[in-house]
Amino acid sequence: MYGAAAVTKSRVLLLVPARTYRATDFLVAAGRLGLDVVVGSDGALALDRRLVVRVDPGDLEASVDRLLARRGPVDAVVAVDTPMLVLAAAVAARTGVTHNRVEAVRAAADKATQRRRWAAAGVAQPPFRILPADASTGALKKAAAQVGFPCVVKAVSLSGSQGVLRADDERGAAAAAARIRQVLGVAGRPADEPLLVEAYVPGWELSVDGLLTDGELTVTTIFDKPDTPEGPTFEETLLVTPSRLAQPILSEALRAAERAAGALGLRYGPIHAELRLDARNHRRQPTMLELAARSIGGLCSRALRFLDGVSLEQLVLANALGRQVTPHRLARPAGVLMLPVERAGVVQAVHGTTQAAAVAGITGLSITTPVGQTVHPLPEGDRYLGFVFAEGATHQEVEEALHAARRRLRVIIR
Fold first, then answer.
1. What is the pLDDT of residue 8?
2. What CA–CA distances, in Å, run from 79 to 17, 48, 99, 138, 160?
């Protein structure tokens, strides 16, 4: 799958945020590839008894200096999750390792910059307006009316549907903006951060995961999202792969994702693109919603099985090392159900896990939020309660198994 070069000993710097689901999967992948791993993190992580170099993503220069002084040259730099993307690009720039430019990674992390660049490049996306922090309520209502109702109000810097609300009228848009401002304040974002107001795009949603090599996209998987909510919040719940959409539509969606990445200046590494087939026109044109310079988040990659037991994280690491990657997923449909937080409070218990795991077709269940943890639903929340995985002979079997497992779970939040 990678060629003979996979047996060569290489050194990889993994940058791991203190809060991430993905540290273990990347370390396991590195071990399977026989890599020498260097870890940098902004938290006190117990990562397989490894020495962790402390870094601060908010202080790029000092963090790069510390990493190079403590650990020396590496063959690749990989950000395990979103908070480390810019630092990874900065380290790569100093060491000469192939990677995206810092400016491109910053552009991908800012929804307002995404919209501007896609507009300049002619990428299909919703009509939008960018509202400065000091915009009046009247200006906000005017912007919402210009893009049309229903509209979506978004924080430009948050991810995972945090700080995103649908509004059906001017009053709703003003209320959504005020609530998102509160979310940004709690998250410690700058007071001058703008908001994004864009048209709501109805239609089938899908996500594209792939790996860029000098701007060329190699697709690792495409997920359908058959249960995508229509608002007011937009929690991701059910993802099923391979996509059931016709090949001409998928080809158009892949071209849109590749073009969108190029417009941001991304040329290397993983991307995770979210699109909808715009139901407002008969063509159902693939329309870009968002794109991140990382692979799919949470534990969702565990739903994917490639030939020879290779994981998505192995593919990401191999791509970062410049090795040829040719993903071959097993054809059997698979899916993941992300368990949303349904109310604010403290998690007291999760009942029914044994019964849920016993449902035919369920291949795994992981409750990732510990008892005693305070949680919040979207748009304030930034985590899921857990993940359920399934496989089946058909897409319908996968979906039915995941829904049946969820019905057996009872989460107590007080």
1. 56
2. 9, 18, 11, 41, 17
